[in-house]
Amino acid sequence: MSAITTTRRALREAAADARRSWTGAAWLTVAGAGLAALVPFVVPSSVRLDGLAETGYLAVAAVGLGFAVGIGGMPSIAQGAFVGVGAVCAAHLVGSGWPAPAAALVGAAAAAVGGIGVGIAVVRFRAVYVAAATWITTWLFALGLDAFPTVSGGSRGLVVPPRGSPTIHYELALALVAAAMLAHRTLARSSFGLTLQAAAQRPAAAAALGAETARLRLQAFAGAAAAGGLAGGVAVQLLGVADPSSYGPSLSFQLLVAVLVGGAATALGPVVGVLVFAGLSLAADLLGGITGSETGRFGPMLAALLLLAVLTLGGEGIVAAVSSRLRLDRRRSEVGAAESSLTGASLEARALVKRFGGLVALDAFELEIRPGRMLALIGPNGSGKTTALRLLAGTVRPDAGEVRLDETDVTAEPTAQRVRRGLVRTIQSNALFPALTALEHATVGASLRRRHGALRTVLATPKARREARAVRARALAALRVVGLEERADELPESLTGAEQRLLMVASALATGPRVLLLDEPSAGAAPQDLDRLAGVLRALREGGLAILVVEHNVRLVRAVADEVVVLDAGKRLATGTPDEVAANPAVRAAYFGRQAL
Amino acid sequence: MPLAAGCGGNDSGSVRALTIVVNAPFSKTPYIGETIARGVELGAAVTGPIDTKGGTIRLHVKRLDNALSPRQAIANVRRAVADGAVAIVDEGTGADASWRIADKAQIPLCVTYQGGIGLVDVERRPYVFRIAPTDRGIAFRLAEYVIPKRLRVAILTDDSAYGDEGRAALAKSFGSNPEAVAISLRLPANTPDLSPQVLRARRSGATALLVWAGPATIANVLTAARTRRWQVPVYTPPSGADPLVRQQLADQPRWVDGLTFASGRMTAELGPHAWRSFESLFESRYGPDVIGVKTSAGLDVVQPPEYAMYSYDFVSVLGAAIGQAGRKDRAALLAALNEVTVRGANGDERGFNLHNHEGVVDDDVYFARFDDMTFAPVQDDPLSSTLPVIKQTRE
Predict the structure, then answer these.
(1) What's residue A523's pLDDT?
(2) Which one-letter DSSP state was computed for residue B159?
(3) In CATH, what number is assigned to the domain containing residue B41?
(4) Mean local confidence (pLDDT), A38-57
(5) Chain A residues close to B78, C-beta within 8 Å
(6) Same domain as B154, residue B144
(7) Do both B74 and B142 map to the same domain?
(8) Which of A109, A562, B65, B91 is the one with CA 20 to 30 A from A383?
(9) Model confidence over A548-573: pLDDT tens digits?
């Protein structure tokens, strides 16, 4: 097939995809952007286009930050520093004769490098420590600018010959805001974004599905920094000076507040937040004019009051509050489910030992599961069942022994790598992602096998779009296997307890497992739901998977298990069929008393 | 571009209002900001209605705070342009960048405080003027005054824009006599304890301190030196006369004694009468500027309106230029500014021309020394010894 034919086909597919996902809101957005582009030509000369352009550049930085905060779960208070990196870099380059666009892009790249440097440290932190670490970073940056006046220009700043008229900057700012919002929206709804959101909401559950959280968060953090650097790099060419005092903690804090006020979870939220701040400046000027006071005192006061109001009302921001009132629903793309195909693998534990201090949680633990077989691991509370699962899944390292998957020693491999090999675990507690629909849950699992990263996703290349369709098809197939295909667009809070457990199974299934480790799948299920659950498990076994089930529910164990292993105080007490184990006197004494199995 | 097109405001009959914007650090250095603004307002009031061929014009004053931020200063100039200002009186922060905006809008921008080298350039920046002592002039006179005393000077400058400009100027003025400089140090502007830096200066063998910095830093240097009983002479540029120095050292007035500063002369060669008239006019409108410290005799110390004089004089020149240019275009106003001459507040002639946009001659720098919270011209300088003492107390 010639290149032209390939390109034509790709363009037709892209147009078809665009038509499928075009909504009324999209028309509104395009109309709004079109009207906004006409502003310089219709407003009176008293309207300061340079001020509007500067607000637009701030919005670009805010949208980038919004992605890190709302999607990545990283409340960064260093975005002002990255804006400063871009501005100072671009100012030096423009002063050396570089073309304006190149200088801005290099500024963005420099900020991205800075973001990677800071991100390597902070992406593994919990949210509160991300905030603290980035706050320190922004202070260090401000102090660094003070300490190195040859870099920052000192108190005078770096003077930059202005490039471009206010009208050009206004249109450029508008275009960059639109591009940033589009990128935010595209990424947030992609498997990249969904996995990030899952990791932010339930880190352990996301890790269990193979999400390489640190790597994804680093990409998000660096991307946000790049957006800030780009904003700084173009803004400095409008302002005419890179003023070090402008890139301090105050700007970082303002940007974070703007994101929170507008709403961190959507692309529009940060833009609304910045516009609200611009409105507050006008209000502060008005108040200052009325009272004869310094307007600078009213701005922070009004901003703080607004932030308190937003936090009091739930903290989701203006856009989310308006959206929920207007009941703006998610739209599901029309993709059919893929055919589900399962293959199994053998899993073997050899002499596994795990100690926690002086306590031996597991001692010389052995088991073997074959494809198409289901093994139940039972025992009293504290017998070591969950420890065994965690050792098999790679969440903790054993003190001795081996874990082999299809004869391959995976003992030293981390969880993500084992998941890629097909060894997947569901965790004990209800670890669903509260803000993701059932389909999005399964998409997180199905994303494990994606090959194309954030950049291709943003650019919506044909391969990235094909892969996205394939991921959603696999996700739907997993929902179909557990009987939740019709509930694809619902949030977990709308599902019953049993359905929620099935959803966890579906998420694990979507990863394409060969061995499933299920931790108490019947927890929270009503008796009438056990048959449904048992039917799903049997179907998976008959499909060829090897399944290990940790359970307390005797009825379920009898219904589905081919073999039962009993643990007591970290040691294997008995092995056999459910009937053999039930008849074992030692098992009865240690676990059941006189209760029949 | 028509001069009166962006006038806005009042338009009663044939009287139009033209706005002069004052771009100064009202929040960060209130004394400087207020002094400049009051000079402009007084100048506008004294100038009164200006009769032109196209009608009568009144000058209106608007204040914008730059908070010592170049970015804010530039934003203020943009705002002034958008508001159709007829002129901008600027403290000087950010002028290296904001001049382009004023230039493009053909709005005269007059600096009345900062004296940095390069700020004024008739060829490249035709719309930038200055009525204030230049750093070059101050630095040259300081070198001229200090070097013959065979002192070894520790040059201490802070990291503000004012300090950085001063550092550059002093490097040139002392460049021919490097042996006169014991050490050159850069001080952090907002640090209260400068003991390490002052100690370092002392250990360098310095026998005098030349502190080119903001008033707070000057006060902190004096504190660091005097608490360690180092009675070294201290020389400063005009910022040494800022009331903040004396306010911070109000409980140790003897530490201020001997502080010597260089500044533009307040009185003219013709005598002090014009200055005293201006001072009376200023105080009749704003009252005496009581700075909050007292002499040993319990008298309130008053600050003479020195920097108000410069901004007042620019408004006088501007008024004369508007009267000459009429309501024609801004190019005509620029031409008029390069032609008119007025009698300044202290009696000196003020004006500009096509080759010079500096309103204060470098030679007109004198030295004054503090004693008992007031200052008087020194007697060991040829120019300073001829100048009268300006009364700075009120009962």
Answers:
(1) 80
(2) S
(3) 3.40.50.2300
(4) 85
(5) 48, 50-51
(6) yes
(7) no
(8) A562
(9) 999 888 888 888 899 999 988 888 88
| Chain A CB within 8 Å of residue B270 CB | no
Its domain, for residue B75, covers 11-133+307-351
Number of domains in chain B: 2
CB contact under 8 A, A155 and B159: yes
| Confidence (pLDDT) at A16 | 77
A9: CB partners within 8 A, 6+ apart: A1
E-strand spans in A165-296?
241-242
Express each pLDDT in A388-408 by its tens digit. 989 999 989 999 999 999 889
What is the DSSP annotation of B317-374?
HHHHHHHHHTTSBHHHHHHHHTT-EEE-TTS-EEE-BTTB-B-S-TT-EEEEEEETTE
Q: Quick one: B252 and B210 in the same domain?
A: yes
Q: Which residues of A touch B (CB under 8 A)?
A: 45-46, 48, 50-51, 146, 149, 154-157, 159-162, 239-241, 243, 245-246, 294-296
Mean of all residue pLDDT scores within chain A: 86
pLDDT beyond 70 at A61 = yes
User: What CA–CA distances, in Å, run from B65 to A53, B72, B103?
Assistant: 22, 8, 21
Among candidates B69, B82, B94 on the partner chain, residue whose Cβ is nearest the Cβ of A48: B82
Whether B318 and B241 share a structural domain? no
Average pLDDT score over residue span B17-46? 94
Cβ B159–A51 below 8 Å, yes or no?
Answer: no
- The whole-number pLDDT of residue A326 equals 67
Same domain, B369 and B266: yes
* Separation CA B142–CA B244 (nearest Å): 22
Task: Considering only residues A162 and A250, tell me which one the structure prediction assigns the higher pLDDT.
Answer: A250
Measure B22 CA to nearest chain A CA, in Å: 15
Per residue in B92-146, pLDDT (tens digit) is: 999 999 999 999 999 999 999 988 888 899 999 999 999 999 999 999 999 999 9
Output the six-digit token pair for B377.
Answer: 């011209």
Would the pLDDT of A330 be above 90? Answer: no
CATH number, span A347-437+497-592: 3.40.50.300
Mean pLDDT of chain B: 92
Residue A409: strand, helix, or coil: strand
Does ipTM surpass 0.90 in this model?
no
> Does residue B239 share a domain with residue B383?
yes
What's the confidence (pLDDT) of residue B5?
A: 45
Taking the C-alpha atoms of residue A210 and residue A452, their distance in angstroms, rounded to an integer, is 16
**What is the pLDDT at residue B328?**
64
Which one of A241, A246, A294 makes the best mutation probe of the B interface by having the most chain B beta carbons within 10 Å? A241
Residues B140 and B224 in one domain: yes
Please check whether residues B159 and B261 belong to one and the same domain.
yes
Residue A154 with chain B: CB contacts under 8 Å: 159, 161, 164
* The two three-digit tokens of residue B20, written as one number: 């002069």
